[in-house]
Amino acid sequence: MKKILFALASLAFAAALNAQAPTAVPMTVNIYEESSNIPAGTAEMLATRMKAAIANSGMGATEDVTQFYLTAKSSLLEKHIIPGTPAKYFNTSELTLFVVDAFAQREFTSFTVELKGVGNSEQQAYTGSLKDFKASNPKVLAYLKDSNKKILDYYDSQYPTIITEANSLALVKKYEEALFRLSAVPQACKGYQDVITVATQIFQKYLDDQSFKALAKARAIWNAGQDSAAAAEAGVYLAQIDPNSKYYQDAVALNDEIKARVKSDIDYYRKLEARDAAWAHEEKTQSIEAWRQVGIAYGNNQKSQYYKTIW
């Protein structure tokens, strides 16, 4: 059976030869209502339009945590009141867009657009001005395209440092965080093939580490019980051991030992067969994205840690 991990490098090489790398950097939107001066009821609308602007600019809009994210802050410039029944409020506000480097916790680029709004109250006029933000604004799109280029320039110059940081994290067994850092590097980066090589090595260490822990738990449970209940509980952990792990044959040996001792048919064996069938299918369909998914999942779970207010 063909192993996924051994195929990753060849898949990456083939992809590099047969397809042109995209030039879009994936980016997400994150607005802090408490510090952006944007009303809670308007923040969601504005975030949706900002995501549309990212997509319209040619960048890749995503919900996943990314190293660079787009946020905004609003401030009131002018307000005018025209007496009448009811009185009319005219507001001019400015919305500043920030591309923020989440890892360095710093502003990367910024751009300000002036917006106007009208309403029967000061709040309505202010909200109306924010609704004046358009995802098709040519100046906003030009700003995002320029930011995309600057981000690519950043990765082209910094990918060796990112690789070094990932290797350092892997040395202390922070494999998921290491893969998260590597998964942030876009395919358009000139060092992406080097990133894939390192990510593949760290991903193997991650699989081995996870499998070692699962095998240790299975052995401890089985050694303590050695009955049908222990077999079923140990089987839950054995089913977590990836066939690509160096501990898989040890898991098979323990499985055979349990099966020889416990003759009764337990749910674990049926689950094991289903899992093997599912993994056989995945080996036919899984691609180079295997390691990226581990990193992305880690990042999404750490969103509050990386996406902080910087002003």
Brief description of this entry?
The chain is of the alpha/beta class and 311 residues long. The chain has helices spanning 4-18, 33-36, 40-56, 122-130, 138-171, 175-183, 192-225, 228-238, 248-261, 267-285, 289-301, 303-306; strands at residues 26-29, 60-61, 68-82, 88-101, 106-119.
Please give a structural write-up.
- The protein has 311 residues and is α/β, with parallel strands linked by helices.
- A five-stranded mixed beta sheet has the order 2-1-3-4-5.
- The model is unreliable at 1-21 (pLDDT under 50).
- The protein starts with a helix and ends in a 5-residue tail after the last helix.
- The chain contains twelve helices and five strands.
The number of E-state strands comes to: 5
Mean pLDDT, as a whole number?
Answer: 83
Instruction: Please state the CA-atom Rg, rounded to the nearest Å.
Output: 26 Å
Helix content: 55-70%
The helix tally amounts to: 12
| Unreliable parts | 1-21
Which features does this protein show?
311 residues; alpha/beta; five-stranded mixed beta sheet; 12 helices; 16% strand
Q: How is the secondary structure organized here?
A:
Layout: H1 4-18, E1 26-29, H2 33-36, H3 40-56, E2 60-61, E3 68-82, E4 88-101, E5 106-119, H4 122-130, H5 138-171, H6 175-183, H7 192-225, H8 228-238, H9 248-261, H10 267-285, H11 289-301, H12 303-306
